[in-house]
Structure formats: structure tokens, C-alpha cells
User: What shape does this take?
Amino acid sequence: MSKSLDRRRFLRAMAGGAAALPCFRLLERSASGATDYPLRLLTLFTPHGTWWPYWRPHGSETDFTFVFENSMLAVLEPFKQKLLVIDGLDHRIAYESGGTGHGAGSVVPFTGAPQIPDSDDSRGPSIEQFLADKLGGDTTLRSLRLGVGWSKSLSFTGAGKRLPSENRPWESFRLVFGDGAPMLPGDSAAARALANRSTVVNALKAELDELRLFPRLAAAERAKLDEHMTALSAIERRLHGLATGKSCAAPKPMSAVDNPDAPDFVPAVSRAQIDVLTQAFACDVTRFAALSYHGQGSEAPMPYAGVNMNTHLDVAHQVGEGKEGANLNLVKVHQWYAGEVAYLLQSLDAIREGDGTLLDHTMILWSNELGDPAVHAHFNVPHVVAGGTNGRFRMGRYAKYNTVGGYDCVAVQPGAPGCSAGNRFAHLDAHNALLVAMLQAFGQDVQTFNAPAYAGALPGILA
Amino acid sequence: VNALRALVGGVPLPAIEFPPDARLGTFNNAASLLRVTDLLADGLSQVAEQLAQSATVQLPSLLGCDPVPNELGCVTPFIGDFAAKAYRRPLSEVERQRLVGVYTQGRSGADVREGVALVLQLIFQSPNLLYRTELGARNDAGAQVKLTPEELASELSFLVTAGPPDHELLRAASAGELSSADVREAQARRLLLQASARQAMATFATEWLDLGQLPKLPKDSALFPEFSADAARSMQRATEDRFIGVVFEGDGKLRSLLQGGLLTEPSVLAAHAGPQWSSPTHRGKLIRNQLLCQQVPPPPPGLIVAVPAAVPGATTRQRMLTHASDPACSACHMQMDPLGFAFEHYDAVGRYRADEGGLLIDATGEVTGAGDANGTFDGADALSRQLADSGAVRGCFARQWTSFAFGAEVTDALSCSLAEPLDEFRAERLSLSELLLRVIRSEDFVQRHVSE
Assistant: This one.
């Protein structure tokens, strides 16, 4: 069998796979006439920093456009009433805690917490895990974490441990829709299968408890067992979800491929992951999700974006004033990402919920590892909030913070106009303020998140 | 994986990425060790379910008795024996009853096979199978933990064969013989003759040289159409075979490994290279970290880290030197690049090249800040000889291997009884397998300290 044949079959399976799923929860909900839709949260990560002249919209706060030559976000023009473009936030926690480049860049975007030195871990949870712990109680999956193309998860547990993400759409599909048909009333075989699985999970929990009783178990080892216990509880919760008919009907599962991360498959994988994610929100399987594209500092070529070269060394690192060749390559990279975001917004917007759509009841934070990629710096990192946010945020705006002096000043140009030589860092507001505003939008009574030094919500953002 | 394979010989194992190690001890251990996250727990439960089904296809031969005349009389002892083998220790009465309870649940409304399958489903994902404890007896409360005989058997077996203890080793454990260093050595010598011992050594080579990621690395398919995950895996196997050959058929000395060309194995050079270029930085970092046991800090914040773009007429070396001419970059790059230059005759997939697109290759460089490994060289062979001559490099290698063996950083507290064998390896008086035997004989092997 030829390789291309396999690939065609895979793409076809993807295309036909998760497009239109019947949703039990949704039907139930509209039948009961409920109109109170929960707010969902998605953290969305893409790497490589940006080049601001092609990222910033043109115009004023409320009258702006993405349509101009070499615009990275042009494809988002139809959605701009449901977007909030935030210009002028630093990932201050990264450089003020001694973190560097890609390492801290893959920790701070959704945690606002320092990276633990020489480790993959964070000094606090990511925002979607924090909220999932507080609010994710009655959904089948507490959170759903998906990746595309050699990606790295930016989700961290309450103890700051990095959580893995699922890069294989057919597996994320199984996580969301279960292994087979949902259980129907009177289906005794399915009921027994569920009872059997519950028996096994209960026995596993008992065994784990016995291990935890060892008096001299080291603290870090005990934490591992605690995490294992949490994982078993997650399985238990899914079993319970299946037993109570809370899950969605599963159509045909998608075909697996050998290496879903390879550039050949990335476009199809991206769409399939977005389809699963959309249905997981629509069916209320989960309310908290994360989606990350490629890893921080990804070197993967992106032929599907017209950039068939090392996107880290030969694109991102070459970006700068007057380096138009590299800048335009970075534009292509970001235009591809923006296209996937547009597809996501379109998919969410296609699902009716009451008088609005699923997109109206969703908040997406799209963030990045870096600001200016050539300097590995966490200054002015591009942030876009998307979705109707249940009306909690003032959307449809291009919000500029810190517009006075030194706006695009970076540490390596201390002599540049507006750049103070004595204060190389800390030009702009900390993005923790945005995370705090998001937590408040989700009803949390907090003034700080993971970093007491940066208190308060970003002004002017909450409705 | 090997623990599962030993339980269900002959049954094909489903594909799942198991974490490398899973010890549960009194140390606050290395971060790479097993963490059962929600995704892994889910994967394990799937695998356990499939495996339980396929393992019970031939039920009578699995049970070793006929369940028809006396069901519980046949099944109950089987469950106890199977679980004891899987957990690598005798079961408590509570555990035994729990397992029988699971059998009863699976059996009810179904048949014996489904009951047994449900028990196996539990055992295959049990924390007692997944984690290897190094905790000693439950009632032991001193600052030193003496491993139980069963823990010692597991420790020895996983170290030598990367798998669970066999019947003979378990027998020695339950007879209380493993407290004798001579018995441990004899058992280890016996196990070293098994094929699995070679695979265990290959695992170390892969981790030491950081080759595991190779099949997943992005390589430019236009430049290297022949590179694939399969090709990467066979490159990796070739390197493992070379390593195993020196350890088991050769003299087991680091000198023979290095001078025999281990560092110019295609898998080593491809694993430490970019998608298109050779990357002297990554290769230099490998030498710095893994052969000299020195750490290089990451780039500081706010630094221009743009490596000059590929310019026609410039070699990779010239690009890197331009980059490192910036004083802000040179401090770190000079610790790595000059080491990596040795391998400039090898491209991004580890193939030899006489020149770089028609440009002359300069493979000279210098080792600095590394004690008796210091000095200039020209090319990979010269660097390999230089490293082989260095006691610092041999000492580093011995520490790397011992850390791998213990699943923990070899600290002063740990290395007390290990100091002598480590020194002897450094002085080239021991081969790698002799070092292994000395470690197994040591006091540090049979007891653990409790960390704060």
C-alpha cells in the first residue's frame, strides 16, 4: 500500500469524522428551555513571538481593522466584534524571576508563575486547571488538553506539575466520546461492563491508599501517588458520566496515523482537534480546555504555511527592523495559525445555544511564548482574547496599554528613544493582570494569581 | 513494559509509551520518574483491558488447572500466584481477598474467563506492578532503610535485565540469601548471560546519549528524503549494538567505546543536530553535559539570540563563530561550539561529508575548562581519543552509569561505599560489567537513606 493512499484515507476520515455530532446534553438542555449557559475557557498557545507592525490592527480602540498588507490577523476580520486585541503586556514574571527564553516562555503564559529552575515545572497552576479545580466538578472531563504538531502542553496542576496533552485526534476523540456507543436504558451488557470497570478503579484506589501509608515515603513520592489518585478519580468520573448518559453519541472513530506530528498531517490534525474540542464544549463534556500548537522554539518546517524551513532558527530568530524577508516569513507562519483560530471561532459560532452561539459563551486566551522573537524576550507578548465571554469582558476592541514612550523598546537597545538605560526591563504591565481579570470574569474573588507582586485586574477590561 | 512481558509471554503487547522508570522510594527522586497523569492512567486502563482479554484466550493453560470441578479451588490459588509474581512479593491477606472480590464481580452473570480477565485487568495496571518500592518493611522507622529481600531481588533484576526477577532470584530472596554480597554477585553473573541484560545496557546507552527522541525529530524532508522514523530507529539500534558489543564481547572500557567511534555514530550526530544543519552547539552541549558532567546555562533574558541566517559561501562553523563573536553570546557558546566543531564532517542526519556544499570544512577545536580533558584537536577521532585519555571523562561516565542504576543522582550520602569502585573505573581497572557487579556488592545497594 502506498504512503499517499494511507494519507488520503486519513484525511477523508478526518473530514467526515467529527463534523456533525448529535449531542444528548444539548437536546436535553433546549428541551428544558434552560438559557443559562456556562462560560467555557480555552487557553490557546502558538510559538515564535511576533513582529508587531504586522500583528497590530490599524485604527482606534473601537474602530479598527485587520485588513492591510501583510497583516497576520486579516482572516479574523469577520470576528472582530468578538475579539479583544491587547497590545502592551509583558510576561514580567518570566524575566523578573530570572527565567529565560523558551524555558520560561513555555511556563508563564497561562500561569503567570515563575518557572522552577532547571525543571519543567511551574510555581503554580495554569489558569484553566485552577478554574477546573474550582468549577469543573460536574462535567465528565475536568479538563481537555490537546496539542498539534510536536507541541508541548502549557497546563500545570495545582502543584505546578506540567500535564501532558493529547496530540492524536483519534485518542482525544475517544477521551471525549468514550469507547463505544453511549449506554441506553436497559442495556444490561453495557451496565455490567461499566460496573466491572468501576470495580477495577475502586480496587486500584485501595491499593494506592495502602502504598500511601508507608511511613517513610519521601514527600515528592507521596505527591506522585496523590497525582495518580487524582487520575483514577478522573477515570471514575468518566465512567459515572457514561453510566448517567451524560456523554455524547460517538460517530465513527478516526483513523490513526503513525506520526500525527509530522508536517504532512498537521493541517488535518489541527482541524480534527478543533472539531473534538468544539463538540466537547457543545456537549458539556468539559468546560476547561487547552490547545497548543508546536512547542516553544519549534524548529518544525511548516510547508502548509508556505514556510518550508526551520521556523525557529531561520524565521523567528531572523526577525527585526529592516529584515523584511524574515518578517514576511513570520507573517506566513502567523497567518496559518490565525486561519486555524478563525476555523475554531467559526466552529464555535456554528453551534446555537439559546439566543446566541457557543462562541458567545466561551472565553479564549490566545497567547505566545515571546514578544520579539529575535531577542528571546518576554516584552510585549501578543495577547488576543476571543469569544463573547458571556458578556463579562468588553469585547470588540483594540486595547493599548502603556502607550507612552519605550513602547517597543527591548532590553538590547537601551539607547533607543524612550528606553531607559537604568530600567532595562519592566516597561509594561504584567500579564498577570489579564489572568486576574479572567478569574474575576469566572466569578473568582481574587486580586492576584500565582504572583503576589502583581496585584489587581487589568483596568477597563471587565464589563 | 518488561514487567508486563514477563507476565504474559507470547501475548503481543499493545503500543503505549511507558515512562522510563517507576520507583517509589525514600529519596525525593529525579523528575523523569513515573507520574501517572490522567492521560497515562487512561492509556494504562486501555492496555490492561486489551491485554486481559488476549491473555485469557487459552484459559486452561493460563490457569494450569481445570476450573469446572472446583472453580474457587482452581482460580483462587492462580490469582494469588499471578499477583505475587506481578507485584514481585508475597501478598497480604487483605490484598488476596480484594482480588478474589474483583473475580467474583467479573464472574457474576458471566463466565470464569471474564472473572479472570477482570482480575488481570486490575493487576496489569496496579500501582504495585507499576511502582518498584524501595521502602523497606512497613514497620521499619530508622534513618537507614534496609530493602526487603523481595525489593532487593527486584532492584538487582531491573538493574541487570531491565525486567522483573525470575524464579531462581525470587527463590534466593525468600531463602534470605541476598543479604550476602557473594550471592548477589553470583545471581548478577547468571543474569548477565541472558539476552535481556544486553537490552538493559542498550537502554542506558540510549538515555546517556539522549537518542530516544531521534525518531520524532523534525528533519527537512526535501534535504533528507531518506530520513524516516524507521530509519531513525535502525540507526539507534546500530548504536546500541556497538555499545553492547564493547560491553559484552569487548573489554567493556570507555576507551574502547570512544575510540571505536561511538560519538560518530549516525544516530548520535543526527539526534544532536537541527532539521537542516549540523548544530555544533547541540553536539558540543552533549559532550559538555554527558561526557564532562558540566552544565551550560540557558541564554539570559533580553539577549539577541539570532544565529546569522544561512549565507551562501559561509560554513556552519563560520555562522556560529559570527554569532559567538558577540561577547554576550560567547560566554556560553564557547563552552559548546568549539567541542561541536569536531563533528562538522557529519551532516544533520549524521552522514559523513567531505565538504559543506563545496566549502572546506574546518573540524579543529579545543576543550577548555575540563581538567585533564583540555587541549586542542582536529576532527572527531582526535576528540574521541582526547576524551578517552581523560580521567575526568571516565569518572563522569561512571557517575552517569551509577545514577542510572540507582535512578537517583549519586550524592555523597549515596556514594560512600561506591567511592572505591567509581575510582577504580576511573583508573581503567574495571570494565563496565565489573563496575556493575561491584555496585551490586556494595552496602549502598541494599539500603537507602531517608531524605528530609
Remarks:
- The radius of gyration of chain A is 22 Å.
